[in-house]
């Protein structure tokens, strides 16, 4: 899991808007296994280790249901430490009866897919050792194959599920965007990511430090898909963690050079990608 610490740039926390905070808290605690780190009347911070917030959920005033065919969140992805942890949570999900939307072997990782009660997509995955990943020059080899669920359950070895392991990380985020050319320029020449996979010119996977991806970007909701209403359930923003002030300053200068707006809020800097997805640049 060295891809989620300095000197890399990685996703730290995802901030979601939900229709019903109590319903979402029940789901994220009982089904996903988060703990509450802090709570206000209409907002809660969720953690795996009791110290670091990985997810924020908020019920805004006048919130509206999730809008289809818009830009925003495709899924956020929780990275588990081991394959046995994936087996344990798979058994828990099967026992709970909560519906899975998919389960895939991506060669670099093994993943489960589901959605929260508002339709926000979630991936729960474990990485194979990076030494086993195959590369074609600068592109990592990934695929979507059936998951060997029986082997993963056996790896779990009946270990009782007690919630998310404390070493769980926000592994990556995958976004719906309205187009790919300007988006690639923003994330590459602005934020400093590298493209590590181009999926049939429909999706880009980008990272720093040759991770298989810290961010996925797709046009599966249609070229020119609009941004959702501000009141809509879905992604409010996500954070990108920089290793040092110098690295963040470099990214801010690069963003401004390509014409992207950057503003400051308290100690954080905020920008938007060309599709309106809000990114908080943090240390």
Automatic annotation (TrEMBL):
The keyword Metal-binding applies. PROSITE patterns: GLYOXALASE_I_1, VOC. Keywords: Metal-binding. The keyword Metal-binding applies. GO terms for molecular function: lactoylglutathione lyase activity; metal ion binding. It comes from the Bacteria. Pfam families: Glyoxalase. Residues 10-127, 169-283 form the VOC domain. InterPro entries: Glyas_Bleomycin-R_OHBP_Dase (IPR029068), Glyas_Fos-R_dOase_dom (IPR004360), Glyoxalase_1_CS (IPR018146), VOC_core (IPR037523). This is VOC domain-containing protein. The lineage of its organism: Bacteria, Bacillati, Bacillota, Bacilli, Bacillales.
